[in-house]
């Protein structure tokens, strides 16, 4: 027994033993914390979704309702109907990504004042979402910043809508706030990916007479397909879970209550914990499904880039070789035909 204990102590003190202990420690501890603060609460939330309960309801007095909470999510207008507002944010996310990709392509090359522009565009992402909410709450308020700017161009205050009350424009106003905040982050990610593309591919494309759009479509876009896919997935999932802007700016009033805002009200104001938990599970399943569909979509879009070597130079060389081979075959066929005619 003593011998085994001494051997264990010697092994622990050895270099190999310390490496094993460090690897195990850095693996087990993060996994334990992940389970304790993520998977265990998620499991409890899924369990709560099958009960009718409040936060203060004792365990023995909770009422098991089965799938009733899930049926309520799809039948109550204030629950699932609020998810339709995410379409506004999805449209804004698409506009944001297109604009970010365009400016990232331009700024990836030497542009006068490009670094200053990058910094100015990225700065809003560094500001807290709550602070941005308060900034734009005053920005859109009647008679404040936006109305003052528009009146300087000759518009009267009576011609302008109530940006946060008029239901025809208030959701678009909130979407514009979200686009302004996250646009710089996507642009910087795109710039980093574009700058990693081999510059020789652009030179080969220019020698072949490719214009800027062809260079973007055949070189840049296939080369950064991973970042494009990632940004689209993050933007769409973020649109489905929009919360800060409508909660801080309008409080969900006048038809601006997104799914998260309604879920927060049901959970913390109405104290319907079971229904709110069911809403969270449904949203998780929707985000999971959207992520799979987006990955399949981009796998189809970039199928040509995946089937080849993703090298523009290799593709052009292969096409040139095929053309040369076809030209040689035509010349050989023509020469054979001429010889046969002379023989006749």
Concise overview:
With 344 residues, this protein is mainly α.
Task: Give a verbal description of the structure.
The protein is mainly α and 344 residues long. The chain has a domain of 234 residues: MetI-like fold. Helix content is 74%, strand content 1%. It has a two-stranded antiparallel sheet. The radius of gyration is 30 Å and the shape is extended.
Assign a percent range to the helix content.
over 70%
Helix count? Answer: 16
- Order of helical and strand elements: HHEEHHHHHHHHHHHHHH
Low-confidence stretches: 307-311
Give the strand order of the largest sheet, numbering strands 1, 2, ... along the chain: 1-2
Architecture of one domain, according to CATH? Orthogonal Bundle
| Class based on secondary structure composition and strand pairing | mainly alpha
- CATH topology title of one domain: MetI-like fold
Instruction: Say which CATH homologous superfamily of one domain is assigned.
Output: MetI-like
- Mean pLDDT, to the nearest integer, reads 84
Instruction: State the name of the first-level CATH class of one domain.
Output: Mainly Alpha
| Main β sheet profile | 2 strands, antiparallel
- Computed Rg: 30 Å
User: Could you tell me the strand content as a percent range?
Assistant: under 5%
Total count of strands: 2
Q: Name the shape in a single word.
A: extended
């Amino acid at each position: 027994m003593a011998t085994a204990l001494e051997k264990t102590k010697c092994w622990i003190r050895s270099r190999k033993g310390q490496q094993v202990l460090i690897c195990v420690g850095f693996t087990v501890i993060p996994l334990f914390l992940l389970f304790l603060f993520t998977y265990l609460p998620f499991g409890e939330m899924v369990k709560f979704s099958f009960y009718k309960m409040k936060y203060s309801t004792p365990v023995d007095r909770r009422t098991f309702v089965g799938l009733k909470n899930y049926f309520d999510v799809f039948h109550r207008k204030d629950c699932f109907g609020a998810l339709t507002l995410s379409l506004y944010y999805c449209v804004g996310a698409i506009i944001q990504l297109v604009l970010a990709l365009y400016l990232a392509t331009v700024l990836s090359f030497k542009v006068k004042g490009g670094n200053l522009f990058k910094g100015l565009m990225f700065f809003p992402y560094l500001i807290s979402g709550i602070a941005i909410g308060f900034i734009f709450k005053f920005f859109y308020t009647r008679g404040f910043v936006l109305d003052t700017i528009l009146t300087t161009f000759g518009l009267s205050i009576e011609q302008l809508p109530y940006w946060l009350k008029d239901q025809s424009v208030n959701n678009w106003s909130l979407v514009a706030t979200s686009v302004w905040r996250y646009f710089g982050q996507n642009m910087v990610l795109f710039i980093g990916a574009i700058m990693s593309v081999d510059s020789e591919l652009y030179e080969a494309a220019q020698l072949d007479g490719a214009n800027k759009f062809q260079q973007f479509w055949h070189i840049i876009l296939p080369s950064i397909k991973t970042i494009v896919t990632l940004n689209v997935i993050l933007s769409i999932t973020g649109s489905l879970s929009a919360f800060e802007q409508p909660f801080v700016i309008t409080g969900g009033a006048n038809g601006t209550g997104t799914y998260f805002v309604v879920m927060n009200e049901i959970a913390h104001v109405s104290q319907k914990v079971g229904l709110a938990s069911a809403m969270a599970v449904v949203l998780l399943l929707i985000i999971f499904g959207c992520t799979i569909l987006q990955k399949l979509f981009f796998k189809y879009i970039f199928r040509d880039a995946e089937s080849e070597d993703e090298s523009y130079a290799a593709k052009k060389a292969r096409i040139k070789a095929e053309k040369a081979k076809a030209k040689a075959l035509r010349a050989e066929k023509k020469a054979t035909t001429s010889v046969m005619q002379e023989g006749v």
